[in-house]
């Protein structure tokens, strides 16, 4: 809301020396947010001039200029070149003398042009910043101004005014007016407030028919509660808008149109109640307020023919629709250059109805902005009277007895405000007298009761609905800077849950291993869900969003891999080809044949019982947390004397082991298959025989579809399942200070035997002395029987209480080999 300070000073005592920044600071102290300061961007000598004479001089370019002699209050007239032709000898005009700066900025200086030295410039309204129209230079006689040459035109036209701009939140629609801002400035400073709606006399009209026929109210509320009409006859449509009004409207962000329209806009800004004016001679019969019927149309003031909805509230006469109620008037009854008799409408419309209409037609307006936030229901009569007074005063009209006053008796229920409630909520020790004083200051009626107060909010504050909003007002007016800053005491507990701790360990471990976490949106396509969310590639059910952000990805993901592929694609497109990415996130796995989201949501004010909560839980699909990773490019770049090391399957398996160690489980790998992965380069991951994920290399076609060059390796694990299996396995062991004994063993086994099975036998047979076992070689070739393979493991033995001998380490190794032979027919390779 832009507020010209000269206008504000009419209704509240703003000190003459107060700067715009001082006014903004005062408004900020009562909860408004400052936006900007607006001025007419002109300075220097801008004065009234009288055109003494001029000579028309045609030019070779086809243009005719006037060489003018202009009296600017100096000893000698000034010679000025002007290209306009809409003025006459003796006219008073606005002259910008050398040294002035007009909006643009456009500095004025004496300059030679068209064979003359032009010693200044005769200005138009647009060049002065008074509007967008450029119909020639500004003649002061058209504004009803007669001033002596040399008079300061900046002050004469109100161009020395300044406006402050504050952000008005949606719940405080009353502040979209000079009346509201003046009242708030008074609250902030204690200055005297004079209500512009308190007029000496407020008349009423009769004899004009107004009927409300709202057969389809929204939320059970009629679309209109107050509807006042007044008439003014004999207005002179040629009278100009006074310059002070043009300046104030311009600073407030509204373009001057004509005197009659400007008056309605002026009163809307001043009091906060939108006003609409009709050309009375163009009306047919009385007015009916009703909902639109199917197929009706209306041409609005902007020249658009709009197809109406049956929810739209209309202003109609006997000929049909003449306006979208509270949003925009119709073109047929528009006030124009020939209008002499005006019907003034001041009404209060339902907030929801107006908001829906404005959004439906994409037609926001100054009127709808105020109506959808709530207009003072006691304002229409005063607003209409203010318009009548201005049209009589400035337009030469006569107030007519014709009019109407349709409305309902206004009343508001009081709000119980218990003693001590405000202090307990805000944390400031307000006295009872201060609370009552503050609420009275903002316009409430405060009556003391046995246990507190009964508070009746004023008509212009529909946002005050309960004891909490009243407490907020006390804190706002008394000063939010007085509220102490107190850190809340954390509730007692154990901090993070075991599952939360486990997820953090896994994420931190992967980050420490060189992977970069890339969180993403959980949206994907059905095709990607089938490819990556199903082991076989067959279709599985997915959750479709009712209002998707992107029409191409309307499903919730069954896998984290599609998002990692998108992230990798973005990085590769920007030249970053060596990638090690991971994400920990939720996937959505609806069960086939189960319909989700059909349970009725319980009311917000009622705590649901256990049965209701269980029903709500059953109405959403399982949402386990997964961890996934992606590798592409090189894990180690090319260096002098060393080739680049590709990030392949073995690096992904190491990352899986990092996850297993952080979670506290042992993950076994066995060869498997998945639809999106390369056959023979795919591993199934298990914990205690239960499948928990997979690792493998993407099919070249899948990588190509994602625009990823080279080999791409991925892995995805059910993190919730892994952490649940880990239980309390994560323990911290003491580091042994004794040296380790290392030995290798090469075993020949059937080629189809998974290395993990052989490793498990070695671990179990070797016993507690075995500290680690790692597969270091898989050999198939000369010296190994056909259909067999030789697997070499590096074994490390250590005792917690002594230094192991070579014999003890060998004995433990052979025990492991013996169990491997027993279970899998393994033989030592010679």
TrEMBL record:
Reactions listed under catalytic activity: tRNA(Phe) + L-phenylalanine + ATP = L-phenylalanyl-tRNA(Phe) + AMP + diphosphate + H(+)
EC number assigned by the record: 6.1.1.20
GO molecular function, one term: magnesium ion binding
Residues of the B5 domain: 410-485
Sorted UniProt keywords: Aminoacyl-tRNA synthetase, ATP-binding, Cytoplasm, Ligase, Magnesium, Metal-binding, Nucleotide-binding, Protein biosynthesis, RNA-binding, tRNA-binding
Any Pfam family hit: tRNA_synthFbeta
FDX-ACB domain boundaries: 736-829
UniProt GO cellular component terms: phenylalanine-tRNA ligase complex
All copies of domain TRNA-binding, residue ranges: 40-154
Location of the protein in the cell: Cytoplasm
Residues binding Mg(2+): 463, 472-473
Cofactor: record remark: Binds 2 magnesium ions per tetramer.
Record-linked PROSITE patterns: B5, FDX_ACB, TRBD
Domain of life of the source: Bacteria
CC cofactor: Mg(2+)
tRNA processing recorded as keyword: no
CDD domains, sorted: PheRS_beta_core, tRNA_bind_bactPheRS
Any one Gene Ontology BP term: phenylalanyl-tRNA aminoacylation
UniProt family annotation: Belongs to the phenylalanyl-tRNA synthetase beta subunit family. Type 1 subfamily.
Subunit details: Tetramer of two alpha and two beta subunits.
Classification via PANTHER family: PHENYLALANINE--TRNA LIGASE BETA SUBUNIT, PHENYLALANYL-TRNA SYNTHETASE BETA CHAIN AND LEUCINE-RICH REPEAT-CONTAINING PROTEIN 47
Protein known as: Phenylalanine--tRNA ligase beta subunit
Organism (species): Microbacterium paludicola
Taxon lineage: Bacteria, Bacillati, Actinomycetota, Actinomycetes, Micrococcales
């Amino acid at each position: 809301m832009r507020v010209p300070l000269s206008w504000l000073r009419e209704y509240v005592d703003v000190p003459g020396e107060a700067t715009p920044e001082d006014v903004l600071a005062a408004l900020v102290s009562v909860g408004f947010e400052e936006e900007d300061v607006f001025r007419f961007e002109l300075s220097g000598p801008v004065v009234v001039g009288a055109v003494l004479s001029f000579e028309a001089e045609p030019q070779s370019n086809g243009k005719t200029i006037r060489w003018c002699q202009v009296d600017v209050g100096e000893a000698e007239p000034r010679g000025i070149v002007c290209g306009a032709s809409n003025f006459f000898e003796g006219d008073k005009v606005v002259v910008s003398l050398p040294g002035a700066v007009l909006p643009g900025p456009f500095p004025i200086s004496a300059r030679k042009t068209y064979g003359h030295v032009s010693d200044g410039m005769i200005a138009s309204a647009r060049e002065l910043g008074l509007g967008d129209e450029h119909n020639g230079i500004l003649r002061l006689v058209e504004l009803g101004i007669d001033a002596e040459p040399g008079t300061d035109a900046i002050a004469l036209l109100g161009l020395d005014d300044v406006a402050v701009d504050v952000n008005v939140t949606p719940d405080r629609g009353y502040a979209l007016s000079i009346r509201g801002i003046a009242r708030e400035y008074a609250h902030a400073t204690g200055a005297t407030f004079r209500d512009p709606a308190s007029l000496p006399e407020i008349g009423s009209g009769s004899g004009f028919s107004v009927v409300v026929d709202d057969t389809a109210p929204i939320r059970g509320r009629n679309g209109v509660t107050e509807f006042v009409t007044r008439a003014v006859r004999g207005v002179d449509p040629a009278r100009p808008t006074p310059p002070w009004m043009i300046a104030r409207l311009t600073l407030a962000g509204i373009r001057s149109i004509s005197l009659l329209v400007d008056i309605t806009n002026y009163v809307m800004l001043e009091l906060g109640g939108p006003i609409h004016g009709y050309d009375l001679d163009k009306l047919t019969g009385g007015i009916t307020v009703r909902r639109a019927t199917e197929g009706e149309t209306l041409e609005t003031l902007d020249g658009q023919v709009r197809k109406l909805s049956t929810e739209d509230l209309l202003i109609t006469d006997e000929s049909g629709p003449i306006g979208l109620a509270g949003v925009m008037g119709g073109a047929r009854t528009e006030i124009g250059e020939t209008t002499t008799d005006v019907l003034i409408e001041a009404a209060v419309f339902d907030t929801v109805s107006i908001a829906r209409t404005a959004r439906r037609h994409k037609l926001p307006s100054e009127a709808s902005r105020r109506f959808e936030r709530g207009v003072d229901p006691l304002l229409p009569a005063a607003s209409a009277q203010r318009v009548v007074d201005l049209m009589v005063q400035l337009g030469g009209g006569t107030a007519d007895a014709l009019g109407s006053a349709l409305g309902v008796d206004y009343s508001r229920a009081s709000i119980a405000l218990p003693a001590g409630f405000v202090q307990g909520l805000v944390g400031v020790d307000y006295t009872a007298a201060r609370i009552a004083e503050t609420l009275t200051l903002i316009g409430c009626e405060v009556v003391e009761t046995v246990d507190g107060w009964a508070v009746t909010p004023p008509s212009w504050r529909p946002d005050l609905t309960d004891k909490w909003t009243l407490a907020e007002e006390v804190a706002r007016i008394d000063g939010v800077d007085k509220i102490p800053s107190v850190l809340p005491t954390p509730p007692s507990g154990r901090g993070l849950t075991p599952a939360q701790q486990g997820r953090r360990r896994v994420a931190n471990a992967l980050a420490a291993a060189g992977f970069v976490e890339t969180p993403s949106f959980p949206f994907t396509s059905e095709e990607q869900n089938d490819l990556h969310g199903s082991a076989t590639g067959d279709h599985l059910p997915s959750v479709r969003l009712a209002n998707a952000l992107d029409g191409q990805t309307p499903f919730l993901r069954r896998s984290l891999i599609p998002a990692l592929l998108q992230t990798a694609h973005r990085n590769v497109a920007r030249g970053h080809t060596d990638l090690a990415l991971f994400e920990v996130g939720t996937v959505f796995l609806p069960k086939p044949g189960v319909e989700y989201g059909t349970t009725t949501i319980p009311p917000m004010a009622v705590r649901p019982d256990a049965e209701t909560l269980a029903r709500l839980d059953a109405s959403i699909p399982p949402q386990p947390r997964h961890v996934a990773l992606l590798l592409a490019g090189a894990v180690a770049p090319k260096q002098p004397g060393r080739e680049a090391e590709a990030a392949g399957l073995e690096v992904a398996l190491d990352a899986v082991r990092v996850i297993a160690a952080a979670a506290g489980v042992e993950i076994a790998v066995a060869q498997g298959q998945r639809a999106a992965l390369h056959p023979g380069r795919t591993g199934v991951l298990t914990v205690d025989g239960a499948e928990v994920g997979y690792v493998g290399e993407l099919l070249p076609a899948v990588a190509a579809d994602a625009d990823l060059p080279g080999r791409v390796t991925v892995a995805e694990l059910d993190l919730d399942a892994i952490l649940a299996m880990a239980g309390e396995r994560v323990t911290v062991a003491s580091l042994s200070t004794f040296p380790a004994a290392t030995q290798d063993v090469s075993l020949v086994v059937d080629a189809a035997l998974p290395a993990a099975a052989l490793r498990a036998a070695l671990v179990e047979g070797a016993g507690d002395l075995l500290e680690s076992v790692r597969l270091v070689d898989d050999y198939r070739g000369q010296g190994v029987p056909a259909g067999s393979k030789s697997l070499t493991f590096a074994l490390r033995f250590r005792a917690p209480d002594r230094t192991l001998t070579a014999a003890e380490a060998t004995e433990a190794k052979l025990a492991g080999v013996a169990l491997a032979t027993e279970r899998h027919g393994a033989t030592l390779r010679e």
